[in-house]
Amino acid sequence: MQVRLQAKNTFTLVMVIGFIYLAYLIFFQAGDGFPEIDINLRDIASYAVLAVEMGGRAVKKIHEESGLHISKKGLTDEGKDELLTKADLVSNYLILDVLQRFPKLKIVSEEKDSKVTEQEASRYRDDQYSIWLSVKDILNKMPERRLQLSDVQVYVDPLDATQEYTENLTQYVTVMTCVTHGDEPIFGAIYRPFFDETIFGINGWGVMSSSGSKLTPVDLDKTIKTVVVSRSHAGKVESFAKSAFGQETQVEPAGGSGYKTLRLVNGTAEVYVHTTAIKKWDTCAGDAILRAMGGSMLDLEGNPLKYGQNEPVLNQKGLLASVRIPYTYFKKVQPFVKDSKL
Ligand SMILES: *[C@@H]1O[C@H](CO)[C@@H](O)[C@H](O)[C@H]1NC(C)=O
Ligand SMILES: *[C@@H]1O[C@H](CO)[C@@H](O)[C@H](O)[C@H]1NC(C)=O
């Protein structure tokens, strides 16, 4: 009897302490008065894929619509601006709308004054359920991984290769989302709206395309000796790339960071070099995919890009990317980086 009573008291005491501890955790520990939330990377990655496809379909529809009004001469500057602004805002709206299913998820995207109304955006909203069905089997193959929501951020690029988009160079256009954990990009999705294809990768697992194929790096001897660079500063990079990688190297100007990364993924280019400042939502998804293949993006000082919450969104140190041995490539460019004071 005595023993039982004591056991009961002990139990009650433990329970009370347990409750007090929980209350303490809830009200004092977590930053803004919320308990720490666990999420599954697979869930968030699934929504990130859904989001890029939603945004990307709108990007394509808006382009088609404007195409109807374009004369043979193409768009005026004003027309270009209008097209771009609309596609960018609507895509951003639809992407955030999907991601908002995760309350308190931190999203890094260009500041958009929400000029888009639900009514306007809904004209371009595709049926979520059918998109979902088309990718669900592949998404189910993704590994489960529990993360603390407070360590996670999602980078959003609602329209990459904006200039090319207005010039009807649609092959360069992509829409991207990327999940980071601490400093590291751990999941990236790149959607090509005009080809209806998504490539996505999870660090430590691998890279897949929405058509269901698993993508692995192309053998080095079958990889095309091309360095892809931005269309706006191709001239400057050309001599530096040839000095670093050999005179036989082809330097190809191409639009969009997402597109250039995809060229590395399918082995139609070996290295991607960028010598000026670049925003991290332009690189995050590609970086995650390259890391999932065994490569990565480095800045031109040789450091992996960091995506953590206290890191600046603008990377001012340039970029060197490949699906393999990025440090080996970095060693080759290093002397020239110094010379050209990039
Ligand atoms: C854009 O390019 C596509 C295919 O390359 C073509 O069919 C279309 O007519 C072009 N549109 C404009 C406005 O130039
Ligand atoms: C490689 O990827 C790029 C970008 O997605 C695409 O334009 C190109 O057609 C692909 N080439 C091959 C041979 O798969």
From TrEMBL:
Principal subcellular localisation of the protein: membrane
Entry EC number(s): 3.1.3.25
Transmembrane segments: 12-31
Top-level taxon of the source organism: Eukaryota
Pfam families: Inositol_P
Subcellular location: Membrane
UniProt GO molecular function: 3'-nucleotidase activity; inositol monophosphate phosphatase activity; metal ion binding
Bilayer topology: Single-pass membrane protein
Residues in coiled coil: none
Biochemical pathway: Polyol metabolism; myo-inositol biosynthesis; myo-inositol from D-glucose 6-phosphate: step 2/2
Binding site for Mg(2+): E110, D157, L159, D160, D282
UniProt GO cellular component terms: Golgi apparatus; membrane
GO BP annotation list: phosphatidylinositol phosphate biosynthetic process
Keywords assigned: Hydrolase, Magnesium, Membrane, Metal-binding, Transmembrane, Transmembrane helix
Record carries keyword Metal-binding: yes
Catalytic class of the enzyme: hydrolase
Cofactor(s) listed in the protein's UniProt record: Mg(2+)
PROSITE patterns referenced in this protein's UniProt entry, alphabetically: IMP_2
Catalytic activity: a myo-inositol phosphate + H2O = myo-inositol + phosphate
Family per similarity comment: Belongs to the inositol monophosphatase superfamily.
Protein name: Putative inositol monophosphatase 3
The species this protein was found in: Diploscapter pachys
